[in-house]
Write a structure and sequence with these properties.
There is one protein chain. The chain is an alpha/beta fold. Helices cover about 25% and strands about 25% of the residues. The protein has 17 helices and 32 strands. Strands 20, 21, 22, 23, 24, 25, 26, 27, 28 and 32 form a 10-stranded mixed β-sheet that branches. A hairpin with a 7-residue loop joins strand 16 and strand 17. Helix 3 crosses helix 4. It is elongated and about 90 Å long. The N and C termini lie far apart (about 60 Å). The model has no long low-confidence stretch (mean pLDDT about 95).
Length: about 600
């Protein structure tokens, strides 16, 4: 957001001081509410006077009545605006304006956005679009400079390449608050010159250097942190949470892996207090979840449902987050702070009745008072630089009668495997128990022939799924049980200008067009959410999911080459630990 009035403006401070003394009226006075005190943990009666974008006074109930407008909060709870410390707008598949309209009425007033999806597709122009689109909305977007474009250099190709020079350029923008999640963990730990220079640019700027430390422990975790990385959201278990708290990382406890939250709550309750280094984030929220559940408010709600004390959850989402961001104006209802304020009905459902952002009432009764402004997306269209594909493009060529194949075993926590396969008419016959995965470069930087691999542990597919949301290079990725459906799904996505499609028995079962960067739609959230629900339903007919790892969401991270283990990319099967790429899964004759 473009702040409506800087809180350190001398005239604004003078007006606020006069109102606090009682020599002038407030612009707004919130009366009758119960203040949730993020410092003491108390629930106490207090009235709040606001002048412009500033909180001028927090005082005893009914002590003042002089105000241009009164907001009656009787029977309700008053808290600071919620702060999401790590998220990606693009994961919700809507524009920044649409995202703002979805979360502001629910009490989220600040989000820390890593726009690396736009960056991976469009380079600096994509990040500039993010900054301009964010500034047009009343939601406070703090942008981070994408640190890993691509996430695994040499193992994949994105639509851009951000070296330390480009990172330093972005860090000079006032709306950029630091370096986004440093995902190339191995490169950082091994002091790869490229990653070392990127992290150093963040340190030199004096801004945040945020992390992605999945699976790191012991000496590797210490080495990762010694470079200057100071946060993590990639927790995998309760013991991982405690180890990283003890190590001194700021935790961005994310809501996108719900099955882990009860374990995290149990660990924090066992500890007996909320560490000041625990913050909350959404990371990724799909459009149907955004529409029905919301953003960070949904994370707060679920944590409380799993047993975390409500004040702890709110403190993590407000004061702790503000301290992490070095934003002393946010996260606390106190005189001299910014008037980002939410009035909730209760401390269980967290239904927001009134939301103020920088002293402006932006939402009431879960509705925006004015729709956020939008900007043109024309420059982000036509990102599918790839010709239509045929079924033959998804076959793996081989000689002889039988071969050994490298396989990618297990969703999410992948490992190398090996199997054998027959050869028919010069092509590999997919072995029983395998699922094909193909990644085709779509950014026009290299040839777009699909590189095909074989997954195990992904069930028996009765069709195919194609998507251009494929972390983090966002190439065209296709999963399937047969090459004909894979071609049908892929071509539907290509024709749509990007998006997702499900095919079965030679026809399209569901399609979600995402013509902006192959990531986002300008359609209303309700429409995007319904199309995504239709995709989920169609996918349930194609494959039997096995939570918590074999789930629909696993399709979007199957190409995340910066994580340990083999991953299919547009260059082949990549392994970040060895720095190798198999251009073909064929290892040799059986």
């Amino acid at each position: 957001m473009a702040e409506p009035q800087d809180i350190n403006d001398a005239d604004l401070r003078s007006r606020a001081v006069a109102a606090a003394r009682g020599d002038a009226a407030f612009d707004y006075l919130i009366t009758g509410g119960t203040l949730v005190d993020m410092v003491t943990g108390e629930l106490r009666a207090a009235d709040i006077g606001i002048v412009g974008s500033l909180i001028a006074s927090v005082h005893a109930p009914a002590a003042r009545g002089d105000s241009a407008q009164i907001i009656d909060a009787t029977g309700r709870f008053v808290t600071p605006g919620l702060i999401d410390t790590h998220m990606h707008v693009e994961s919700s598949m809507v524009t920044p304006a649409t995202y703002a309209a979805a979360v502001l009425p629910r009490g989220v007033t600040t989000v820390v956005w890593d726009p690396h999806e736009f960056g991976n597709v469009h380079g600096l122009e994509g990040v500039r679009f993010a900054a301009q689109a964010a500034a047009a909305t009343p939601l406070r977007y703090i942008l981070l400079a994408p640190s890993c474009v691509p996430s695994a250099p040499g193992l994949e190709l994105a639509g851009a390449d951000f070296d330390a020079g480009k990172i330093a350029d972005m860090l000079g923008w006032p709306e950029v608050g630091g370096i986004a999640e440093v995902m190339n963990m191995r490169g950082v730990i091994d002091r790869d010159p490229r990653m070392s220079a990127i992290v150093q640019a963040g340190l030199t700027s004096g801004k945040l250097v945020c992390g992605h430390a999945r699976g790191l422990q012991g000496s590797d975790l210490a080495a990762f942190m010694a470079t200057g990385v100071s946060s993590d959201h990639e927790l995998v278990a309760g013991e991982d949470l405690m180890a990283k708290l003890r190590a001194g990382l700021t935790i961005e406890l994310r809501g996108s892996h719900d099955h882990l939250l009860p374990d995290f709550v149990a660990e924090l309750n066992r500890l007996g207090h909320l560490p000041q280094t625990v913050t909350l984030c959404t990371d990724d929220v799909f459009p149907d979840d955004l529409e029905t559940g919301g953003g960070l408010d949904d994370v707060v709600r679920r944590l409380v449902r799993y047993g975390l004390p409500p004040v702890w959850a709110l403190r993590a989402a407000t004061l702790n987050a503000a301290q992490r961001l070095s934003r002393s104006d946010l996260g606390l209802i106190a005189a001299g702070r910014r008037a980002d304020i939410v009035i909730f009905d209760d401390l269980s459902d967290f239904r927001a009745q009134t939301v103020l952002a920088s002293g402006v009432v932006v939402a009431e009764q879960s509705r925006m008072l004015e729709a956020p402004a939008t900007i043109s997306t024309a420059e982000l269209r036509h990102s599918m630089k790839i010709a239509p594909l045929t079924a033959e493009d998804f076959r793996v060529r081989a000689e002889g009668t039988r071969v050994r194949l490298a396989t990618i075993d297990r969703p999410r926590f992948t490992q190398w495997g090996e199997t054998e396969a027959d050869i028919r008419d010069g092509f590999v016959v997919p072995p029983d128990g395998t699922t094909m995965i193909a990644v085709a470069h779509r950014h026009g930087m290299a040839d777009s022939r699909p590189r095909v691999g074989f997954l195990t542990g992904w069930g028996q597919w009765q069709g195919a799924f194609a998507t251009t949301i494929s972390h983090d290079s966002h190439n065209l990725t296709v999963f399937g049980g047969n090459v004909d459906d894979m071609a049908v799904a892929a071509n539907a996505v290509i024709a749509a200008g990007g998006g997702m499609a499900v095919a079965s028995q030679g026809k399209i079962e569901a399609l979600l067009p995402l013509p902006i960067s192959g990531l986002v739609s300008e359609a209303p959230l309700a429409e995007v959410a319904q199309d995504f629900r239709d995709l989920r339903t169609a996918m349930d007919k194609v494959v039997d999911w096995q939570p918590p790892y074999l789930v629909f969401k696993a399709c979007f991270g199957a190409t995340l080459a910066c994580n340990a283990g083999p991953h299919q990319t547009d260059r082949g099967i990549a392994d970040v630990l060895t720095g190798t790429v198999l251009t073909s899964p064929v290892l040799g004759p059986a």
